[in-house]
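User: Design a sequence. Structure:
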């Protein structure tokens, strides 16, 4: 039977929806309301599907046949007609309803990716300082979402957690950090009644972190400053950051993010929102520190990958070098450093460095330079209270109550003494001994 306009107009509604077919899946659905809809029923990948071609009489019989030709051609080409995106197939109201439905589904039964977004926006960014939540975001994006991102949060089991952690067991610090951030995220999901229970209950990291005590010897400090860093394949800004960590004894992230507005004369004030212990901290800047900083109206160590804005003819850098990038620069420049093994489905790419550019030193981290500065201050006989004040430690007792400017004099004396010691270490002294051969040549 071939459809005609009189035939379709005369189709009467019934108590229940019914369909009439012309041929090969093409037909008309009649609703109890009297609405007539052109349809095409087909099978693809073993699944039966139904596609609306339009409502009659808004869509004429001739227009419906044109659309039928298009969808049959798509099917012939091995494509699902509903996935093609025909303009006439779009239904704003239906799409709006589906979007609302999908949003509700995401809220009530989110993927791990959606849960991570909620955790970052509604917890981490609200309750943590910027450097801390950015590290959470990096760990989730790099070390968690590639494995779990598309899975429903409620479907993650203890076994999944153990398998994830085992992939990083050859890097204890990373393994523990991944455990911490994912556990916090799932606890957040339980508190927010997104899931009923966390798969992290009683989960322990497969490896434990051993306390790191690496400090650089005087010979290593000299080598790093005078020969190893100069030849290393890293930016001048990164080299200055590493030296400034050693000179000031401050945390790598705080040094990398130093901004011109934080520096006033000989003092650098690290604001509470940037300090690890959320306490404003003042750092005395020696002559060496000031030379390493140089001049800037914004970040002293701008990121080469960030965006820039123009204001009153001045280029403003929007972000600074990340402390993780500084640590990475060290790793790839160490002669004997071996990257961790790749895990299934992952490729590890570390920018190659020519062998003659690599530093011939035992592995060290940016934080080891801070620890070295503290150790040197102790060797110079400065008290624990003064060293803690220099480092910005938050402690109980007398140091707990010092105000912003208390200990300024002690800090200045300590850092100036360390500068003198550092200069004596890195200065190449010419020998005063004259060889016998030289004396003979002069006598002749």
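Assistant: Done.
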């Amino acid at each position: 039977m071939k459809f005609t306009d009189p035939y379709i107009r005369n189709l009467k509604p019934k108590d229940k929806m019914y369909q009439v077919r012309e041929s090969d899946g093409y037909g008309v659905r009649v609703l109890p309301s009297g609405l007539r809809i052109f349809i095409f029923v087909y099978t693809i990948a073993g699944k039966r599907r139904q596609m609306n071609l339009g409502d009659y009489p808004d869509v004429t019989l001739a227009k419906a046949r044109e659309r039928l030709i298009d969808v049959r051609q798509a099917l012939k080409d091995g494509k699902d007609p509903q996935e093609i995106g025909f303009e006439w197939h779009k239904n704003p109201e239906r799409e709006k309803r589906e979007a609302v439905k999908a949003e509700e589904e995401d809220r009530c039964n989110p993927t791990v990716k959606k849960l991570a977004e909620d955790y970052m926006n509604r917890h981490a960014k609200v309750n943590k300082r910027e450097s801390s939540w950015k590290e959470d975001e990096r760990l989730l994006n790099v070390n968690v979402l590639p494995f779990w991102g598309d899975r429903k949060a409620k479907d993650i089991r203890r076994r999944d957690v153990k398998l994830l952690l085992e992939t990083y067991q050859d890097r204890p610090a990373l393994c523990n950090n991944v455990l911490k951030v994912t556990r916090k995220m799932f606890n957040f999901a339980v508190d927010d009644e997104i899931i009923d229970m966390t798969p992290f209950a009683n989960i322990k990291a497969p490896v434990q972190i051993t306390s790191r005590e690496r400090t650089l010897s005087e010979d290593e400090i000299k080598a790093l400053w005078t020969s190893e860093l100069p030849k290393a394949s890293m930016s001048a800004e990164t080299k200055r950051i590493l030296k400034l960590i050693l000179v000031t004894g401050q945390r790598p992230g705080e040094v990398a993010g130093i901004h011109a507005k934080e520096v006033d004369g000989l003092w650098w004030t690290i604001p509470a929102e940037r300090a690890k212990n959320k306490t404003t901290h003042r750092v005395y800047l020696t002559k060496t520190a000031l030379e390493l900083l140089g001049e800037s109206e914004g970040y002293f160590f701008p990121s080469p990958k960030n965006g820039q804005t123009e204001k009153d003819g001045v280029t403003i850098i929007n972000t600074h070098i990340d402390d993780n990038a500084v640590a990475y620069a060290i790793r790839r420049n160490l002669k004997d450093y071996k990257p961790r093994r790749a895990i299934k489905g992952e490729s590890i790419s570390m920018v190659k460095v020519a062998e003659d550019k690599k530093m011939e030193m035992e592995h060290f981290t940016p934080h080891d330079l801070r620890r070295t500065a503290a150790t040197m201050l102790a060797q110079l006989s400065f008290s624990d209270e003064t060293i803690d004040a220099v480092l910005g430690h938050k402690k109980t007792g007398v140091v707990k109550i010092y105000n912003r400017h208390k200990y300024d004099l002690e800090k200045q004396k300590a850092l100036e003494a360390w500068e003198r010691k550092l200069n004596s270490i890195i200065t190449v002294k010419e020998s005063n001994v004259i060889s016998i051969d030289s004396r003979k040549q002069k006598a002749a």
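Strands lie at 18-23, 26-30, 36-44, 47-56, 263-264, 267-270, 281-284, 308-311, 314-317. Residues 342-348, 396-402, 430-444 have pLDDT under 50 and may be disordered.
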